[in-house]
Amino acid sequence: MPDLGGIVKAYDIRGLVPEQWDEDVAAAFGAAFVSVTGVDTVVIARDMRESGVGLSAAFARAAAAAGADVLDAGLCSTDELYYVSGSRDIAGAMFTASHNPAVYNGIKLCLPGARPISMDTGLAAIRDKAQAILDGHPAPAADKPGTVTAQDFLEGYAAHLRGLVDLSGIRDLNVVIDAGNGMAGHTVPAVLGPVDALSVVPMYFELDGNFPNHEANPLEPANLVDLQKAVVERGADLGLAFDGDADRCFVVDERGEPVSPSAITALVAEAELARHPGSTVIHNLITSRAVPEVITENGGKAVRTRVGHSFIKAEMAKADAVFGGEHSAHYYFRDFWFADTGMLAAMFVLRALGNASVPLSDLVASYDRYVSSGEINSTVADQSAKLSEVEEYYADRAGTSVDHLDGLTITFADGAWLNLRPSNTEPLLRLNAEAPTVERMRELRDEVLAQVRR
């Protein structure tokens, strides 16, 4: 029998198909999900991967046999699935492996109201129940099985987003959008097509889970090259790049230069605080220092969290935060059930630029205050020992402060800072460093790497 411990991650299910999981495993997850959570209605959806058709159908049949009514939303972005879960207050199961290669697939599960499920809040129990089913202990069939009904929610999702960000009065903008053959090719026409001011140049909008043009992972610079070139050649005002399931959005300015997700977080935070004065905004601890500065300058309360969407979502709900942003280009909104949506973040950028008389590079310059190293991975034999070594190395520096919210963070008197986080799945330490100048950032980066890699 398959070992589900290898594919059930901290907050989702993901693995090779069929080597690590197949339709029998998907059915076990469907029965386990209903059995463990007790939900009576589940919306399921899938991205463009070929394996998603059979996997989602198997999950649906088993969930219905366990007593839940299933709404099959068909092809969706992950944030469209969250829209259905949130607006109807029902559980959800999104079949996607996001930016991973075609041989992967996965499931992102949520409770009614798009509330996340992590290992601590039910995913471990679902894993164990599914494993028991696969090991020969089937879940009891419901006295009254549920139904499976196909329903399309795309127009409702699009209308909901346009109701949150009004783009009707903006100036004309030319925007190149790279869908990476992912689900943005399905959702962008519905959401942005009716906006008269937008002239959209589509790139790789054909849904293809084999990703024939490039990986659907805009976090990797190589996957932005086509978009950057197109923006410059066409004289566009900006470019947008989405990942495979379209829950993350990256922005390129009119020069073809990537805009930091921290700058986008600050821009959206400022807009949301203008609508909701004094609100809380969440940011993870490796976003730029500029983010909490902008939040404070605009009268908001900045709350810092660990890296990872389960931490962001939990803290947002706890603090009733209006918005949350991560360095990885995940953006979360109170008006979207505290869930993440790349499309809504993109619309905030379009509105800000459409109401400005300057190019995007000028618009975001005030949010780009520091120089970042980006994330740098180092293989180490003993993560804890190396963290202790680095902490000890800097212990006597005047004006430094140390915290252990997520790995090791050291902040220096001149405003520079570093964070070293251990990977949960590999023998790696992940370094992020930031400083007021390029020279200081490079000095700090190289100094830390010398300690980590010796």
Task: Explain what you see.
Belongs to the phosphohexose mutase family. Residues 8-131, 156-256, 262-370 form the Alpha-D-phosphohexomutase alpha/beta/alpha domain. This protein has 454 residues and is an alpha/beta fold. It folds into 4 domains: 4-152, Alpha-D-Glucose-1,6-Bisphosphate, subunit A, domain 3 (Alpha-D-Glucose-1,6-Bisphosphate, Chain A, domain 3, 3-Layer(aba) Sandwich), CATH 3.40.120; 156-255, 3-Layer(aba) Sandwich (Alpha-D-Glucose-1,6-Bisphosphate, Chain A, domain 3); 261-365, Alpha-D-Glucose-1,6-Bisphosphate, subunit A, domain 3 (Alpha-D-Glucose-1,6-Bisphosphate, Chain A, domain 3, 3-Layer(aba) Sandwich); 371-453, 2-Layer Sandwich (TATA-Binding Protein), CATH 3.30.310.50. 36% of the residues lie in helices and 23% in strands. The chain has 14 helices and 23 strands. It has helices at 23-37, 51-65, 78-88, 123-134, 154-164, 184-192, 225-234, 261-275, 290-297, 309-319, 342-354, 360-365, 383-394, 438-453; strands at 13-16, 41-46, 69-75, 91-95, 104-111, 115-116, 148-150, 173-178, 198-203, 238-242, 249-252, 258-259, 280-284, 301-305, 323-325, 331-333, 339-340, 371-372, 376-379, 401-403, 408-411, 417-422, 428-435. The strands form 4 sheets. Strands 1, 2, 3, 4, 5, 6 and 7 form a 7-stranded mixed beta sheet that branches. β22 (417-422) and β23 form a beta hairpin. α8 packs across α11 (342-354). It is globular and about 70 Å long. The model has no long low-confidence stretch (mean pLDDT 96).
